[in-house]
Task: inverse folding
């Protein structure tokens, strides 16, 4: 039997046998033997860590890559061949050379950066070679050499309710928010696994435990249904959504342990998901100057770019704002709104919008995205082990500034 007591960074462990396996982060061990027990004092100077794949599952649960735009390159982009448990994650909008240098220099008490979450995918177009002559390729080489994984959510965060576009609007006066587009997508868990004909409630619990232990399913995601036979006998069915990879892992276990029950797999229908962009219909109109000040304050900017239709003054009342973070012209084009709010648009797209009576507020591409990293950090902190350190890059910034 093992009894564990913890004070700060010291742990006393009492073991009855002499065989001892120490945590990889143990740095100092003092032992003393008395009677049948060995008393061991372990000084832990580095935090515990999480496996990369467990963190990826959490990323997927927060923003499934299946809802990202089809043209995007999202998810786990770099996976070390022998990944170490991750104790430090660095969040950035763009993975530049300065951000990579920051990651490599951030080792603290053995807590090096093991994963970089870059909103923009550092690998977007196919790479034909990895050489030192290309800055982007050099960054990937450094990540591989240093055993650092790279993950990118990008447009999965754009379309997500509560994602980047909704964060962008959170700094503006309140109103009704609707998606600019709705698309039909297949959920990450696109299959329904059903175990029916169960006659014992204890077996329901056992089936649920197998599902939760063998997949990334939580007990809250498992549903139960009951039907009664003509003789008032109860029959239970256990169901849960599951992805193809998890199904291949859990199906053999279910068929081996519960072969007398009916196990079926069906395809789930596609479900509606909000697309990129949002339309804010203000509860109470505000003037253009107030809107500009709200955007500046929310993004922490002193300057931005504004294009107004002919005849507009700063007192023009605004009742609707269409937003698309980053480069939003293709999403905003043709949308009926008083103002387009985005990072960048081409000269001709701006001319077309103002000619149609819509003002354009341009904040530079990544300025409309970077602030969401702090929101995402809080979301991750609620899901990850408290021993995993999360930090937002201090060197990441938009390459453009207005002088």
Result:
């Amino acid at each position: 039997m093992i009894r564990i007591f913890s004070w700060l960074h010291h742990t006393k462990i009492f073991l009855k046998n002499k065989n001892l396996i120490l945590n990889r982060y143990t740095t100092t061990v003092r032992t003393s033997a008395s009677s049948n027990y060995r008393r061991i004092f372990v000084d832990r100077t580095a935090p515990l860590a999480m496996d990369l794949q467990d963190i990826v599952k959490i990323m997927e649960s927060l923003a499934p890559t299946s809802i990202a735009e089809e043209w995007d390159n999202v998810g786990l982009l770099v996976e070390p061949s022998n990944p170490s448990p991750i104790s430090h994650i660095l969040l950035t909008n763009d993975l530049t050379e300065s951000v990579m240098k920051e990651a490599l220099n951030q080792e603290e008490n053995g807590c090096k950066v093991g994963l970089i979450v870059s909103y923009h995918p550092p690998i977007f177009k196919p790479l034909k070679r990895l050489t030192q002559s290309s800055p982007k390729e050099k960054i990937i080489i450094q990540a591989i050499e240093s055993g650092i994984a790279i993950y990118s959510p990008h447009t999965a965060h754009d379309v997500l309710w509560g994602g980047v576009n909704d964060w962008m609007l959170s700094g503006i006066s309140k109103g009704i928010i609707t998606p600019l587009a709705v698309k039909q997508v297949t959920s990450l868990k696109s299959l329904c696994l059903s175990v029916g004909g169960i006659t014992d409630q204890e077996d329901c619990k056992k089936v649920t435990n197998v599902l939760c232990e063998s997949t990334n399913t939580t007990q809250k995601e498992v549903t139960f249904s009951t039907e009664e036979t003509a003789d008032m006998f109860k029959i239970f069915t256990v169901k849960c959504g599951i992805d193809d990879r998890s199904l291949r892992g859990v199906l053999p276990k279910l068929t081996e342990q519960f072969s007398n029950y009916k196990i079926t797999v069906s395809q789930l229908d596609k479900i509606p998901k909000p697309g990129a962009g949002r339309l804010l219909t203000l509860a109470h109109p505000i003037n253009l100057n107030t809107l500009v000040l709200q955007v500046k304050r929310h993004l922490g900017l002193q300057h931005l770019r504004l294009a107004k239709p002919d005849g507009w003054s700063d007192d023009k009342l605004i009742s609707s704002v269409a937003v698309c973070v980053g480069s939003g012209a293709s999403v905003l084009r043709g949308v009926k709104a008083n103002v387009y709010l985005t990072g960048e648009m081409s000269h001709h797209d701006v001319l077309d919008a103002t000619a149609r009576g819509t003002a354009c507020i341009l904040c530079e591409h990544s300025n409309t995205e970077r602030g969401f990293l702090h929101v995402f950090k809080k979301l991750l902190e609620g899901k990850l082990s408290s021993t995993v350190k999360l930090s937002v890059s201090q060197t990441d910034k938009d390459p453009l500034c207005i002088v």
